Amino acid sequence: MEKWVYTFGAGLAEGGAGDVEKLGGKGANLAEMAGLGLPVPPGLTIIADACTHFYTHQRNFPDEMKTQVLDGIGGIEAITGRTFGDARNPLLLSVRSGARSSMPGMMDTVLNLGLNDETVQGLAHNAEDDRFAWDSYRRFIQMYSDVVLGLDHEIFEEILDDEKARFGHEFDTDMTAAEWQHVTRIYKQMIEDELGEPFPQDPQVQLWGAIGAVFSSWMNARAVTYRQLHNIPVHWGTAVNVQAMVFGNLGSTSATGVAFTRNPSTGEKELYGEFLVNAQGEDVVAGIRTPQSLTEAARLESGYDKPAMEKLMPEAFAEFLAICNRLETHYQDMQDVEFTIERGKLWMLQTRSGKRTTKAAMKIAVDMVAEGLISEDEAVSRIEPSSLDQLLHPTIDPRVAREVIGSGLPASPGAATGEIVFTAEDAVSAKEEGRKVILVRMETSPEDIHGMHAAEGVLTTRGGMTSHAAVVARGMGIPCVAGAGTMRVDFRNGALIGVGVQLKKGDIITIDGSSGQVLKGTVPMLQPELSGDFAQIMAWADKTRRMTVRTNADTPGDARAARSFGAEGIGLCRTEHMFFEGERIHVMREMILAEDETGRRAALDKLLPMQRSDFTELFSIMHGLPVTIRLLDPPLHEFLPKTEEEIAEVAAAMGMEPRALSQRVDALHEFNPMLGHRGCRLAISYPEIAEMQARAIFEAAIAAALETGEPVVPEIMVPLVGLRSELDYVKGVIDGVASEVMREGALEISYLVGTMIELPRAAIRAHVIAEAAEFFSFGTNDLTQTTFGMSRDDASAFIPTYQKKGIIERDPFISLDFDGVGELIRIAAERGRQTRPDMKLGICGEHGGDPTSIHFCEDVGLDYVSCSPFRVPIARLSAAQATIKQQRLARHA
Ligand code: ADP
Ligand code: MG
Ligand code: MG
């Protein structure tokens, strides 16, 4: 018989943290905590496979599941001494979803299940608290109707608001037992009116209804969108947790709260969170009342007048603090926990690895190494490389005066400027038009996620540090100011009202997610400094990684930025970019359009000093580090004059008739320039171009070596080679110039000549090409184009369709196609090294900065990756993680 149900409670558990696939994250960790002997209300977990079964069997539960659930509930009854459905001593249950990876706010939970018109009396009697019982019942009706019966929760909130107002109360907590009972009656009547049948009174019906609803919520629109955004496969399904209720709404000695064991924003080692007295479930994050601080220190800092948990419930607090420490040591990570205090007794309801900002992740990892909790390698492995982008966020220049128009909580760091929009749809359409926006909402919900993705930052006027907006923005790495209570959104009139101002849609604001301030207009920003914990993690990464990290840089500015990000050389300098600048394009045009070699040489003579000074500067910035320079590559047409004006201008400069020049332009026209007269083909047709470039490189190398005192070893890269004879020819030209320049300069310098591997033929013939080539650099942009036969510039017309239809999963221009293009790289690396065992291999396509592609490069044994300057830190970290992964695999093998 298949085991569908796993139980936990009273110090025992059938599963544990290792069973996340089966039990889901929440279930596995509840079991783990129960097994550790921590106070966890007893419960059971229905495994995620049951959800899959549910969908493959016309939404029916597996046969044996029902009995197993009922047996499990029997166990809960035995531990709690209460009986499910019993009128006098009822056991109440929570039914909670819990998938393999946490999907915040995506699935729904039902609390207080088992209440009906009879059991509510028993609950009241047992607790000696009528108010509590009716409060719980009305909550149950609200949640069950929303989650299981599909009634809009706003209808209930409206009724509640009306009744509260009628009774003259401001807060839910002011309501009396009789008043709650009254509200319950109205709720039930409304449900019967809406649905044509009464609210289900039978606890068994409630139970199976709730379990079915959790399974069904796996397919609701929010969950589907979230899965798409986070690449979570549909076949995982969700587990269901059925657990004995504990009550935070049993008066002033009861409470419920959420906490992070360290500060998720800064990483500081301090308990961080909020709690609410006499409350249940999501009251804390829903922003109904302002939550209170956990620690006295946090209370003082926030200036709240209500006491912290530390003061109010010292015993429960001490136990809670001890449990938090224990959990951190046990999981060796910062935890995000939920807890409830029922009449002074602490209960743990959830734990998981806490989401954190990159800044916090760095600090926590570095601190945990110092605390002896984790190793340096583990610290390096824990930082998500792409999240380093977050650190590169600008901050507001502290020296400028700030025009503050409101403030809220500093919910996600960094500053951002943009136009105000009030809806997710407006954010998306503005982004499509290339405009930057700040999404301004009262609060956000999962329906706003696509709008948050499109926005530079998010501002909400309600909600706390653990509100939806705050959690999601931190995850996305975009700045967020949450709960700006001094501001108001007037949705109907499309206005944001702040201190002394009224702004409308389209007005510019700046939010500072690090201070919580909202400013008017655009504000000068500072670029971040990459020191402290960041530098420490990077130092550990650099110590570990096998591959070196170079940069793709065409200008001195790029090269300097890349050096400051830790680049260890230039892997690709595209010389054509140097020819587009300013006056140079004219000379370049003269050269291309020249009618004969003499004309071309005249133009090249003018280009030589410009190229030489470019290279000299690059070499001295790189100070002895390797620099790979690629000879001219682009299709000629990119340089041709297009407008009549341009033609006239060039013609005048060359002393030619515009008409004759126009004809020459036409003659150079190509039908398919990507596969036309480019790459080494140019150097073969016009060797004088390669001669000039080689001369510029060698003269610059000599000049820089003399200037810096460091030997410069230029690496000259010949593009788009398919035949060994092509490389032989161009190499001949380069070698000729080299000996000439060295003789003139009376200085020996060493240099390498190699090639890009960017054509399938080159990859396949790598062993032959390697006889001439001293290094290979994989140009994976072109190699992807030529392997797929897809032009990168035209691929956007069909790649998204391919992805939508499931033809391909990932865009091969962003993430390397391991099976096809990757196989060619493998072949070329292997065959190249057969011929030349110590040959240097690198990658210089866009993929050189993509974490998964970098793992592939490690696997193939490349010597270096090269990427754009801003991706250098990401590549350094990814390369280290790839090495650590290989070492771990080797240890397990
Ligand atoms: P989510 O995944 O949205 O956090 P949960 O299943 O954790 O949903 O539950 C929602 C809320 O209900 C949380 O605040 C949680 O602490 C509370 N809760 C869940 N189970 C119980 C229980 N057995 N007793 C009391 N409160 C509970
Ligand atoms: Mg929830
Ligand atoms: Mg939870």
Beginning-to-end CA distance, first to last residue: 35 Å
The 3D shape can be described as elongated
Query: According to CATH, what is the topology of the domain at 5-244?
Result: Dna Ligase, domain 1
**Integer average pLDDT:** 92
Report the CATH C-level class of the domain at 5-244.
Answer: Alpha Beta
Instruction: State the share of residues found in helices, binned by percent.
Output: 40-55%
Radius of gyration: 33 Å
Ligand set: adenosine-5'-diphosphate, magnesium ion
Looking across the biggest beta sheet, what order are the strands in?
A: 15-25-24-17-18-19-20-16
Low-confidence stretches: none
Can you tell me the CATH superfamily of the domain at 5-244? ATP-grasp fold, A domain
How would you sum up the major sheet?
A: 8 strands, mixed
The CATH architecture of the domain at 5-244 can be named as: 2-Layer Sandwich
Number of DSSP E strands = 34
* Structural class estimated from helices and strands: alpha/beta
Total DSSP helices? 36
Strand content: 15-25%
